[in-house]
Amino acid sequence: MDKEALYTQIKQLIIDALNLEDFTVDDIDTEAPLFVEGLGLDSIDALELGLAVKNKFNVNLEADNDEMKQHFYSVKTIADFIEAKTQA
Amino acid sequence: MKFSFDIKELSGRVAGVADEKAFIDWLSGTLTVPAEAKPCKTKFLPMMTARRMCIGSRFAADVALELIRSSPVQAAVFASRHGELERNFSIQSAIAEDGDVSPTDFAMSVHNAAAGSFSIVGKQQIPISSVSAGRATFPQALGSAVSLLKRYEQVLLVDFDSYIPDFFRQGMHESMPDLPYAVGLVLTRGSTVSCESRASEAEAAPAELPCSLALCKALYSGSSYSFEDGDNLWQFSYTQLRAEDQ
After folding, report:
1. How far B155 CA lies from chain A's nearest CA (Å)?
2. Could you give the percent of chain B with pLDDT greater than 90?
3. Which of A9, A38, B113, B201 is deepest in the core (most CB within 10 A)?
């Protein structure tokens, strides 16, 4: 899949899964942090987003650890993680 | 049980009614909203908090945050007959289908979700309780709020409910209101409104509106209002409110 299309898909997934009613995909910066200072998402959002990514892209997520935090840092890092998992 | 109180301020939400003025107009009959009107966005509850809440809970927290801007309160009672039923149904459905439970559903499925969100957003470190008492939820919560007036000058009472999932409607009386709404009252000591209950096993009469909304409408129309919950008859008497006084 084209990388830009994957970014858009992930952004829409974030909006839908986390019910970000006033947001469009254009409001989410591909490389900006998603949690705390960036979009302002929190730990419940992290769990909800992890579940959504797992169901949508059929990838297995490890238990909560520092590595997973790095994978979910931004839309770009999530895309890299999905690509690595699906190509493995 | 017999008690009386004054209403310092009231506000509310139903679909198509976004703030205190529109709510008073709706109560007094000068504003009608189409049945298919969509719920308005919250004005006082930030989207990042509202997004996780059922529509009735959003209304409740928004009304509460609106009222405390002009009427600081020392205690609050949140009342909801069904509470977070949509969340709980979603959790049970996921388990029944062997699926994953949504972390948001899990985190927000407690009965005091609206009260907690109000407390956090409004920075209200005050005693807050959540009441559910079946058909008698509103009058029982009212009695609870009035009892707090022995100790506090102003007490907030918020009564609310969300949509009832279709699954549960199969066994319910068809006249059961399915109207997401919230009513907020700032109560003070006084005798403008009195309520007296007595035991009555009369069949609960079909109601077009939830008890709190029906009472507020009656307050503005000046008509008498009583409510049968299947165990008790609650009779209200009051001096008519005028929309221009609010």
Report:
1. 32
2. 71
3. B113
